[in-house]
Specification:
The protein is an all-alpha fold. Helices cover 68% and strands 0% of the residues.
Length: 217
């Protein structure tokens, strides 16, 4: 059974209501990350978010609706960032290198790891009916890379033999695995090496703009 996470509900709220809902989600995400899904109970959440039981039940009538909304809330920031103009649609090798450079230079794997990946690792252990949405969220992230790689093929920048879906999986797995190892080691090297190796592999399928140009031109 699918549970409505409440994006439509959030749009009907007043500004104050939206702020309260967002505060609950922020604290719920932190509790799930630090203490696990089961520890993020109503009593804990009411206390840290500063809301009453009736307020909590108004926005999130059950645990599944809360967890689904947390997934959506966390995913929105990650996906919107990857869809921003910063990476130009991921349709050049340079865009993928800029993505890797950003996380190597500005990521904080020593503190929290990947916010969405860390959340998923806690949620996936439960028997809540949220796995489908969780999987769909990571598919959307993968598809941002895949869509860019497919555009590269259409633009003649990537060999037709390349499989955009497989390459996208490799990039996302490199990020998730590299983040986890960097967090464990408290060292940027695992993330740096994983991301640059994945981008280097994608580049092996890249087509030089001068590939079809006659010599001497």
């Amino acid at each position: 059974m699918k549970t409505d996470t409440g994006p439509r509900q959030a749009h009907k709220l007043t500004d104050k209501g939206q702020a309260t809902r967002a505060r609950i989600l922020e604290h719920a995400a932190d509790l799930i990350y630090t203490k696990g899904v089961h520890a993020a109970n109503n009593e804990q959440l009411r206390r840290v978010a500063g809301v009453s039981g009736s307020q909590l039940n108004h926005y999130f009538p059950n645990k599944e609706s809360l967890v689904l909304a947390v997934i959506d809330w966390q995913a929105r920031g990650v996906l919107d960032f990857h869809r921003s103009d910063k990476f130009d649609g991921f349709d050049t090798i340079d865009a993928f290198r800029e993505w890797a450079d950003f996380y190597v230079a500005h990521g904080r794997p020593f503190e929290d790891g990947c916010s969405l990946g860390s959340l998923a690792s806690e949620i996936v252990k439960t028997d809540l009916d949220v796995h489908q949405q969780l999987a769909a969220t990571f598919e959307q992230w993968r598809d941002i890379f895949r869509d860019g790689l497919e555009r590269m093929q259409r633009l003649g920048r990537l060999d037709a033999a390349a499989d955009p879906a497989r390459l996208a999986h490799a990039l996302l797995a490199a990020y998730q695995g590299g983040m986890l190892l960097a967090q464990i080691a408290r060292d940027i090297a695992p993330l740096r090496d994983a991301l640059y190796a994945a981008v280097d592999y994608v580049e092996t399928f890249a087509i030089s703009p001068d590939a079809d140009r006659p010599r001497g031109q």
